[in-house]
């Protein structure tokens, strides 16, 4: 079993966002030691971090990984043209094997940016799972069901959710599943009601796209006389927690429900900006004590899977929104991106660096000009950091990225496949 | 004399933002060939770009480079506290030698992000110049004078501007100087009037901070009954062109003046966001045909010197501002960051890749997951790119950055100096 020793490290404690020198040991997929009085051991590899920062890896709490094939395929156009004329017709052409290959491309990008886990909502979850297992990426699948008022849609949505719950949970330490549905506007009320009952039956949290655009909220009010959040609450969807992706257009009442239920807001600042959806009231949520996490959304709308850029926007957009340079401080944002996102995904053993936690780590290179001088390492990471500072990424105890290379994966083969797939879809 | 051959390249033409395969040769600090039918020659080094993107380097059209020492020193606080309680007192302690060392640190960061030239406004220009010459960075110094209503302030401001014009121009191919002053709110009207006359006498363009904050514009209206732009125009400052840094809070009349005079707007989207100054009406300016360039502002307010992040924000903040996902397209933004910024700085021979132009280049690594698949390389660079994609930077014909290394500079020594300087200032 692989045993790694990281020494001469500066280690981030996410509890109080402080940094202290020390070392960290792993055995297999677990952290076995963190501190300054290390036990002797025989290690597979000993890594001198030369004072670089060792911290929990980023967790991407909302994404559609396989949408890599549409990266930079159709940008700078109105939202509806992008979605209905470009994205949906191309997605219809995807095979399960395509989803497998395209998710592997996303895994490479996650690793190169220090992310080891994602909360993925897409078609063909078996193939997303296979991509995660073959790349060594931690995966939390999110139910992505939707449907109209037909019995067939109803049966399909409900049976898939129930089936996935047992199929993807408890089988592999890298993979888990959370109940969820695409969104209110794509799911008939009969299905929403049944999903609420299912969540209660299995005592499960529920996740969905929520209030991403003003149009979506307006449409829900027209259909149901209430906002998506109030509708979901009244249907009893949040008895066992859960969360919402985006949450850009939220009323006071919506926020109160999130606060009272301990629900997770997963913010996606890059995608919300690029699609002109708006700026979520994140600082307000933060001050209310609402649980916060960060995701990239899919690479078709972002167009990167880069948690550094998300963190930067998560902070500076709030300063703009609140007209206050003090809004949304760096330490809060970094905490959201590592432990917040992990906890939103149910990864309670991947949220911090401590004995017994999973070995999901990233080494941040401080020996680069954008990290100097070292006035404040946390602020450097959030406000000056970039994925160029990712020196090494460890997922589930395995080094999956180091100094620009992917030691366990054949990147050229994965790149070639992704180009083949998009070329074939364009030709169809 | 160094002769470089770049072959198997995909070369960006900034004229029409198209990319075509070919090769590029340099001799000394000049480009000697671009095309597909290369002459034979003896090269110092032949570099197979393996299909990677070769494009003009980024030019940073507004910065205060030496402020690296205050990176992450005081963030997440109200603007006035940051400026008056943190920045100004620390800047007062800087020696000329400090400015030299701190500008060298900035040069490392510029090179690592594909930037080879900056339009720098700071104290001790002789020492900024020395740093540029010692690192091989192209430098356009901008007059940073200011002053109250005393005769001494007047004499100092005017004599310095006149002196710098001859001292820094025409001496070294890496260095030039443009007339400028800090801002309306820091410069007495008598000095502003005299600067306008000086610009006319020497037929020079004039540059200054302009309408960065709403307060600044309001103050100018209270002092002079008009906006900064109208005041400058009425003083006759723009007879020979010039530009404004920031230009966040602009009236219709202001924009018309910029358009009519052919002035450059240098936008600083990261700094304007982080300091909660606002979002400039960049897309409106673009549609009016106003000349546009991009800068980072100083690293104390940004906190990086990263043109990739600036480009991303320059586009997506406009989509938010205009509530239109089609606003501010990627090709316009990339053009701003390379040729727009060069032309704003008067670097008319650094704006594109063509025979006879200066060899200021960057190689963008497309063989990374965030650049795959290759649906649209320009959109990939702007929307998915990061400084991790910078494979090589060539400044004035010299390779100053390659695969994470600085072949001509001792980065550890520069990092150590910057840490020594900030430690000493904190102890004072």
Quick recap:
In chain A, 40% of the residues lie in helices and 22% in strands. In chain A, the strands form 2 sheets. In chain A, strands 1, 2, 3, 4, 5, 14, 15 and 16 form an 8-stranded mixed sheet that branches. The first copy, chain A, has an 8-stranded parallel sheet with strand order 6-7-8-9-10-11-12-13.
Can you describe what's shown?
Chain A is 40% helix and 22% strand. Chain A has 428 residues and is an alpha/beta fold. Chain A folds into two domains: 3-56 and 350-402, Urease, subunit C, domain 1 (Roll); 58-344, TIM Barrel, CATH 3.20.20. In chain A, the strands form two sheets. In chain A, strands 1, 2, 3, 4, 5, 14, 15 and 16 form an eight-stranded mixed beta sheet that branches. An eight-stranded parallel beta sheet of chain A has the order 6-7-8-9-10-11-12-13. In chain A, helix 7 (228-234) packs across helix 8 and helix 13 crosses helix 14. Chain A starts with a strand and ends with a helix.
Radius of gyration of chain A: 21 Å
Structural class of chain A, please? alpha/beta
Q: What oligomeric state best describes the polypeptide chains here?
A: homodimer
- Runs of chain A in which pLDDT lies below 50 for 5 or more consecutive residues are none
CATH architecture of the largest domain in chain A: Alpha-Beta Barrel
How far the N terminus sits from the C terminus of chain A, by CA atoms, comes to 47 Å
**Strand tally of chain A:** 16
CATH topology of the largest domain in chain A: TIM Barrel
Main sheet attributes: strand count, strand direction, barrel closure of chain A: 8 strands, mixed
């Amino acid at each position: 079993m692989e045993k790694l020793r990281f020494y001469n490290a500066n280690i981030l404690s996410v509890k109080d966002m402080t940094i202290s020198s020390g070392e960290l040991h792993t055995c297999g997929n677990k952290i076995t030691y963190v501190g300054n009085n290390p036990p002797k051991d025989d290690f597979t590899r000993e890594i001198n971090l030369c004072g670089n920062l060792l911290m929990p890896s980023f967790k991407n709490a909302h994404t559609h990984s396989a949408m890599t094939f549409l990266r930079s395929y159709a940008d700078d156009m109105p939202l509806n043209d992008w979605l209905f004329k470009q994205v949906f017709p191309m997605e219809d052409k995807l095979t399960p094997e395509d989803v497998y290959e395209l998710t592997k491309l996303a895994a490479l990008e996650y690793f190169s940016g220090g992310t080891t886990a994602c909360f993925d909502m897409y078609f063909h979850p078996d193939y997303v799972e296979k991509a995660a297992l073959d790349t060594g990426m931690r995966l939390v699948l999110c139910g992505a069901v939707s449907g109209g008022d037909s019995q067939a849609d109803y049966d399909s949505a409900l049976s898939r959710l129930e089936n996935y719950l047992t199929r993807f949970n408890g089988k592999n330490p890298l993979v888990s599943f959370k109940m969820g549905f695409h969104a209110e506007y794509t799911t008939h009320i009969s299905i929403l009601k049944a999903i609420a009952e299912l969540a209660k039956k299995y005592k499960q949290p529920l996740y969905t796209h929520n209030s991403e655009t003003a149009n979506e909220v307006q449409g829900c009010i027209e259909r149901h006389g209430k906002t998506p959040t109030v509708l979901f609450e009244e249907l009893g969807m949040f008895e066992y927690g859960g969360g919402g992706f985006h949450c850009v257009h939220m009323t006071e009442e919506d926020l109160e429900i999130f606060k009272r239920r301990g629900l997770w807001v997963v913010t996606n600042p890059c995608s919300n900006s690029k699609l002109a959806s708006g700026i979520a009231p994140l600082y307000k949520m933060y001050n209310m004590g609402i649980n916060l996490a960060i995701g990239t959304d899919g690479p078709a709308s972002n167009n990167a899977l880069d948690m550094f850029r998300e963190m930067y926007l998560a902070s500076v957009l709030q300063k703009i929104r609140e007209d206050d340079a003090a809004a949304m401080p760096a330490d809060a944002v970094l905490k959201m991106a590592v432990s917040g996102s992990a906890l939103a995904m149910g990864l309670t053993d991947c949220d911090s660096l401590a004995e017994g936690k999973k070995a999901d780590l990233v080494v941040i290179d401080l020996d680069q000009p954008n990290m100097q001088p070292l006035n404040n390492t946390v602020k450097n990471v959030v406000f000056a950091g970039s994925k160029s500072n990712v020196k090494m990424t460890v997922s589930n105890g395995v080094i999956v990225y180091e100094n620009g290379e992917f030691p366990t994966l054949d990147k050229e083969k994965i790149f070639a496949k992704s180009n083949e797939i998009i070329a074939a879809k364009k030709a169809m």
